[in-house]
From TrEMBL, chain A:
Residues 1-43 are annotated as: Disordered. Keywords: Methyltransferase, S-adenosyl-L-methionine, Transferase. This is Leucine carboxyl methyltransferase 1. Methylates the carboxyl group of the C-terminal leucine residue of protein phosphatase 2A catalytic subunits to form alpha-leucine ester residues. Pfam families: LCM. GO terms for molecular function: protein C-terminal leucine carboxyl O-methyltransferase activity.
From TrEMBL, chain B:
Residues 193-228 have a biased composition (Polar residues). PANTHER family: SERINE/THREONINE-PROTEIN PHOSPHATASE PP2A-RELATED (PTHR45619). This is Serine/threonine-protein phosphatase. The lineage of its organism: Eukaryota, Fungi, Dikarya, Ascomycota, Pezizomycotina. Its EC number is 3.1.3.16. One of its GO terms (molecular function) is metal ion binding. It catalyses: O-phospho-L-threonyl-[protein] + H2O = L-threonyl-[protein] + phosphate. Residues 232-242 have a biased composition (Gly residues). It comes from Coniochaeta pulveracea. Gene3D superfamilies: 3.60.21.10. Residues 384-394 have a biased composition (Basic and acidic residues). Residues 108-113 form the Serine/threonine specific protein phosphatases domain. Coiled coil: none annotated.
């Protein structure tokens, strides 16, 4: 129940002035708004996510020294309500854990040793993060010194990585340019991604120096929908098609039209035989909470076309199955809290802030799903402690 | 026009009153509340309401649906503040009405009527924003410390009076309803007649109809709920004594629920309540606990209070001659939820909670027992009347008193355009 500082909830309410006489963000959002306007609204959701991440970090839910650099210092207030902080924690932790498991298997795990020989500095796995925005996962991964930042489980320090990875981020040119500028300005970000260099006019850039563990980092500035075109496909420099790859969409593909979203997945699936995927999206638009969510988001100018098609967690599994994966799994965030998060961490998080929103938590967390699939992951993706022995 | 009436008028328009007036109001309120016991005695008829959470426009809707003060006798079970945008106006209006009509308005304390919780969940910031200083927040918190911890409703009838004036009273009496659900316009959407005890199997330990079925108009018991005979969301058990006109047992109203440290209603009366809500102990539990489908007591996921099962409720009700516990504290999508053979009910009065949850709200009406026997006929938990459960405690087979007839009025969030703010506005947070 600790309230270490008096929060100011003003920021939670957007730019609204006192007593509701304010202006909504971005003025009136009508159905006739242009696509460009929708795009910029969607880009705004990244700011939302960055603020939520920083809130969770500052209150001790997550450890992420990089989160602070992606929230504008003008944003006076960053504290979110406990229910949102918990959601941010679960979502980030669950995805971290899936990424870890993937890396364990292909970078530090047994299959990385399949050839019998440990080869230094061979890129044995690849991560592609769609709509990454201000995401800090690459920084955390590349600087991991074996600190306990993930569920109380250590990630091997990068010195121990047997092999390194190729990391791609894809987002709108405007967003990746901004990220480049932030990295250039911030020494600890540059440490993780040395010598960031603009590669193309579209804002694409890469870390030209070698990130600490010898991995490679690319940041591509493009509209994902371009990947769903039939012809004239954009090139993705540095994309490897011959190594195990994990495609991550953390609340990104849901903003695309369903067919575009499918085509984006297909783009990678067609080219990379060993492709895995992790999706994080809202679900259940039809119950009272879901209806209200759809209408509240619409009031912010946010539309999620895939939500209308993949309504239930099971639909997300079916979606991945239809895209060509045999073994798929989908957990709601609520279930992820129950089953992914270790008891110690649950207790730790419970002790950070009182959660007087238990029913609301179940509602909210029941409306987001994490779905994943990979051709060579174990059946069922059990998080049993046995697969944690990577040292 | 007295100051009070002026304040009421201004607050009804959702306009805060000046700081000096808040101070005076809070002072008056405290003088009034200090005289109340920890457990206030309220006579039926009464309309019982759950959490409000600063949703001022929905509170106005509640008054429209339930009747205005002082025409309707109200009992609010706490959580007036936090989460919504108008905690200040909502709480001060209720407080004004309390001071203006002390006998027609009962306010008991919720877990959000606390300094600590209001700093996290919005009321503190709202005061700061609206007044530029924390003074008003302090005045209000001082009042919180004096709010009663619970209430006992006496003299509730086990028959319903008509929901609206168009129905004939005799017709209602003939139907002998145990539970009726009405919509916001007073139209009955569900009626459940009281049945003789012999018709149903003896007390079924399962909560009935949880959660409240898919809609409150879903008709009689669905096959999935077995021999449940009540309407969706109600625990109407049919297990009443059946004789029309007898007064029902007393109803205990408390924000959260029971405490392992509290065996009797009298024990609540002995607490020293005039303080900030403690982190643990009986007072904390009364404001924080939740009923759950468990046996005995359990740890609460909220980190304060406990979970308690049907056995706890039935034993407590039996020992204290209660027929029902009414409580709030938990969001229920259908506005109300009866559990444990209708021995406890959750009433939730904040529609579309946090402008995000999409739920409906409800209030619970208990009508007056016309025989006039209600107040005196029973050892019904009034002060010094319970025997502390010492003699009657039996390990099994607690006979539940016949519950009062209950009318739930279900209502939705006030229309957006009545809120005095742009209809399309980012309000609720999501994970994006």
């Amino acid at each position: 129940m600790a309230a270490p500082s008096i929060p100011n909830l003003l920021s939670l309410r957007g730019s609204r002035g006192i007593r509701g006489h304010g202006r909504g963000r971005g003025g009136h959002h009508g159905p006739g708004r242009g696509a460009a306007s929708h795009d910029s609204t969607i880009q705004g959701t990244d700011t939302d996510a960055a603020v939520s991440r920083l809130s969770a970090v500052e209150l001790g839910y997550l450890e992420d020294p990089f989160a602070q650099y992606f929230v504008s210092p003008d944003a006076q207030i960053t504290r979110r309500l406990p229910i949102i902080n918990r959601g941010t924690f679960v979502r980030t932790s669950a995805l971290d854990r899936l990424v870890d498991q993937f890396l364990r298997q292909h970078v530090f795990g047994e299959s990385a040793l399949a050839g019998g020989q440990i080869q230094e500095n061979v890129h044995n796995a690849q991560i592609i993060s769609l709509g990454a925005g201000t995401d800090t996962r690459a920084f955390r991964l590349f600087t991991s010194k074996g600190r306990k930042w993930n569920q109380g489980r250590d990630v091997p320090p990068y010195e121990l990585w047997r092999n390194s990875i190729v990391y791609h981020e894809i987002d709108f040119p405007r967003i990746v340019e901004k990220k480049l500028a932030t990295v250039r300005q911030t020494s600890s970000l540059k440490e993780a991604l040395p010598d960031p260099n603009l590669e193309q006019a579209d804002g694409s850039w890469k870390s030209c120096g070698r990130p600490p563990n010898g991995s490679e980092f690319w940041c591509h500035g493009l509209d994902l929908r371009d990947l769903s075109r039939e012809t004239d496909l954009p090139r993705l420099d540095g994309l490897r098609t011959d190594i195990p790859t994990l495609l991550i969409s953390e609340c990104c593909l849901c903003y695309l039209e369903t067919s575009e979203a499918s085509n984006v997945i297909k783009f990678f699936k067609d080219r990379i035989p060993q492709l895995g995927i992790v999706l994080y999206e809202p679900v259940k638009p039809d119950d009272p909470f879901g209806k209200q969510m759809v209408s509240n988001l619409a009031a912010r100018g946010i539309r999620m076309p895939t939500l209308e098609v993949y309504k239930e967690p099971k639909d997300q599994e079916d979606r991945l199955r239809a895209a060509g994966w045999e073994v798929c799994c989908a957990y709601t965030v609520e279930k992820a809290w129950e089953e992914f998060i270790l008891q110690d961490d649950q207790q730790r998080v419970d002790s950070l802030e009182g959660l007087d929103e238990v029913e609301e938590w179940k509602l909210l967390a029941g409306h987001y799903v994490i779905a994943w699939a990979h051709p060579s992951w174990d059946m069922g993706m059990r998080w049993d402690d046995n697969d944690m022995k990577y040292y | 026009m007295s100051d009070l009436d002026k304040w009421v008028a201004q607050l009804r328009a959702c306009r805060p009153i000046p700081e000096a007036d808040v101070r005076e109001l809070c002072h008056k309120a405290r003088e009034l509340l200090i005289e109340e016991g920890n457990v206030v005695t309220v006579n039926a008829p009464v309309t019982i309401c759950g959490d409000i959470h600063g949703q001022f426009h929905d509170l106005m809707e509640l008054f429209r649906v339930g009747g205005d003060v002082p025409d309707t006798n109200y009992l609010f079970m706490g959580d007036f503040v936090d989460r919504g945008f108008y905690s200040l106006e909502s709480f001060l209006l209720l407080l004004c009405l309390k001071v203006r009509y002390p006998d027609r308005m009962t306010l008991i304390r919720g877990n959000h009527e606390s300094r600590q919780i209001t700093t996290v969940y919005g009321f503190y910031d709202e005061c700061l924003r609206k007044y530029g200083s924390a003074n008003v927040w302090r005045y209000c918190c001082d009042v919180f410390d004096y709010l009663a911890l619970g209430a006992i409703v006496l003299g509730a009838s086990n028959t319903l009076s008509p929901a609206s004036e168009s129905s004939a009273a005799q017709e209602y009496a003939d139907m002998n309803l145990e539970v009726e659900v009405c919509n916001a316009d007073g139209v009955s959407t569900f009626q459940f007649p009281r049945q003789s005890r012999s018709l149903t199997s003896s007390s079924d330990p399962q909560p009935r109809g949880s959660p409240n079925g898919s809609s409150s108009t879903a008709g009689h018991s669905s096959p999935a709920t077995g021999n449940k005979t009540g309407p969706p969301g109600s625990g109407a058990s049919g297990s009443s004594g059946g004789s029309v006109g007898n007064p029902a047992g007393a109803v205990l109203c408390v924000h959260g629920g029971l405490s392992p440290l509290i065996q009797t209603v009298d024990a609540i009366r002995l607490l020293d309540r005039k303080q900030e809500v403690p982190h643990e102990g009986a007072m904390c539990d009364l404001l924080w606990s939740d009923p759950d489908d468990i046996d005995g007591w359990g740890l609460s996921p909220r980190g304060a209070g406990f979970l308690f099962g049907a056995d706890i409720v039935k034993e407590f009700n039996y020992k204290n001659d209660l027929s029902l516990i009414a409580r709030a504290h938990q969001l229920v999508m259908e506005g109300f939820k009866e559990m444990f053979d209708a021995s406890i009910v959750t009433v939730w009065s904040a529609p579309n909670y946090c402008y995000r949850c999409g739920n409906v709200a409800a209030l619970l009406e208990l009508s007056e027992d016309e025989s006039g026997l209600g107040v005196f006929a029973r050892s019904n938990g009034d002060v010094s009347r319970s025997d502390g459960g010492q003699e009657k405690g039996r390990p099994n087979g607690f006979d539940t008193l016949e519950g009062p007839a209950r009318r739930y009025r279900v209502f939705q969030a006030a229309p957006q355009d009545s809120r005095g703010m742009p209809a399309k506005k980012p309000v609720a947070d999501y994970f994006l």
